[in-house]
Amino acid sequence: MRREDENVQADTLVEQEDQVDAVAPAAPVQQGEAPAATQPEEKPAAPQQQEEAPPAKPAKTRAPKSTAKKTRTVELTLTVTGTADGEWQADLVHGTKRVVQGLSISAAAVSKAAKELHEDIAGGIDEVIEAARAQHRTRMEELEAELAKVKAALAELSE
After folding, report:
1. Cα distance between residue 152 and residue 140, in whole Å
2. Over the stretch 102-118, which tens digit does the pLDDT of each residue have?
3. Which chain positions lie within coiled-coil regions (predicted)?
């Protein structure tokens, strides 16, 4: 703050000197008067101009710096990718550096993590997991039907 005060005072003095210089030559000099009479009139006029001068523009002051600690942000990007088969993978990137790539994760872990994050996220992920379950059930039923046919064919060959 002290440095700013010095700058303000210096600016004010420079402006006042500029104003005095600008006013002094503009004062009319009457011809026929004695030089001694002219000089006293000019000197008092200059101090009056200084007093009447508009106040100097205040220097732009900066807002005081905050003493609060700045929060350091960390950029982490976690990408969870799922397939229609119900396989889940995770990728983690810290800034521009890839930390983890293609890490296999169980559907149960993904569902649990999504529920902890937010209800809307959990709803979307649970829909995808449920669709994968339905697909696996359908595939299982197809395989069971095929297994039943193979057992029947094997039983006919055994007789």
Report:
1. 18
2. 999 999 999 999 999 99
3. 126-153
Q: Are 20 and 49 in contact (CB under 8 A)?
A: yes
Report the C-alpha gap between 85 and 133 in whole angstroms.
8
- Specify whether 129 is located in the same domain as 93: yes
Quick check: is 114 in a domain? yes
% of the chain beyond a pLDDT of 90: 35
Which of 1, 50, 58 has the alpha carbon at shortest distance from 21?
50
d(CA 139, CA 87): 15
Query: Domains in the chain: how many in total?
Result: 2
Q: How far apart are the first and last CA of the chain?
A: 106
Does the pTM surpass 0.70? The reply is no
**Alpha carbon distances (Å) from 146 to 39, 85, 138, 140:** 124, 20, 12, 10
Contacts of 135 by beta carbon, 8 Å cutoff, 6+ apart = 84, 85, 86
How far is Cα 125 from Cα 113, in angstroms, rounded to an integer? 10
Question: Could you tell me if residue 66 is inside a domain?
Answer: no
